[in-house]
Amino acid sequence: MRKCIAIDMDETIVDTLSRHLDWYNTEFNQQLSKADLHGAKIYQRVLPEALAKVKAYPDHPDFFADLEANEQAIDVIQRLTEGYDIVIATAAMEHPNSFAAKYQWLAKHLPFLSPMNFIFCGRKNLVRADYLIDDSSRHFVGFGGQGVLYSAPHNVRESADIRVDNWSQIYDLFLGEGENSHSDLLTEAAVTAEL
């Protein structure tokens, strides 16, 4: 039986942080950058009077419209489908107005996945998968499989059994061969989790 990988959308497949920064900097005439967010979420660094507005950006219909995928994300996901069942698990319930825009983005950029593989949820620990690739480690709590933390400015200080910095490392982790293979990390993490 094929193993299943659940993959987060925001900050894992797509660069939502750049959109947040662009809209915030433009609207509030600021110069906040990803480097300023080392170890913090954008909501912890914006002007207090801008907080509610910035938190509402993902509810705007244009927020997800033309987001860029992270480098190699689409290609690696397509390659992963050759050996794994792939589902996209996105926490759309935090921003219910984002559902249609997220769905449209996924359908457009991941046409090789059935829309039946798109999971819009609040609690990712309810998703049945062997692995969850996500930038938010809080989603690993209670998750029945192995979490794989995707590096983002806000999580640089968090520890993780398995951390990846980019999609090339995800490829090596799940599909790499020879000296590029890191699948032993998946096995070691699974054994540790069972103990």
Description of the structure:
It is a single chain. The chain has 195 residues and is of the alpha/beta class. The protein has 2 domains: 4-15 and 68-194, Rossmann fold (3-Layer(aba) Sandwich); 16-59, no CATH class. It is 30% helix and 12% strand. The chain is built from 6 helices and 6 strands. The longest helix has 13 residues, at 16-28. The chain is globular. The two termini are 24 Å apart. The mean pLDDT is 92.
Write a concise keyword list for the protein shown above:
195 residues, alpha/beta, 2 domains, 6-stranded parallel beta sheet, 6 helices, 6 strands, 12% strand, globular
How do the helices and strands line up, and which of them pair or pack?
Elements: E1 4-7, H1 16-28, H2 51-56, H3 73-80, E2 85-90, H4 99-109, E3 118-120, E4 131-134, E5 146-150, E6 163-164, H5 167-175, H6 183-194
Parallel strand pairs: 1-2, 1-4, 2-3, 4-5, 5-6
SS-based structural class? alpha/beta
CATH homologous superfamily designation of the largest domain: HAD superfamily/HAD-like
Report the sheet with the most strands, covering strand number, pairing sense and barrel closure: 6 strands, parallel
* Total separate domains: 2
Strand order of the largest sheet: 3-2-1-4-5-6
The CATH architecture of the largest domain can be named as: 3-Layer(aba) Sandwich
Helix content range: 25-40%
CATH class of the largest domain: Alpha Beta
Tell me the span between the first and last alpha carbons: 24 Å
> Which segments are poorly predicted (pLDDT under 50) over 5 or more consecutive residues?
none
Query: If you average the pLDDT, what whole number results?
Result: 92
Instruction: Give the overall form.
Output: globular
Strand content: 5-15%
The total strand number stands at 6
**CATH fold node name of the largest domain:** Rossmann fold
Q: How many H/I helical runs?
A: 6
Radius of gyration: 17 Å
H/E element string? EHHHEHEEEEHH
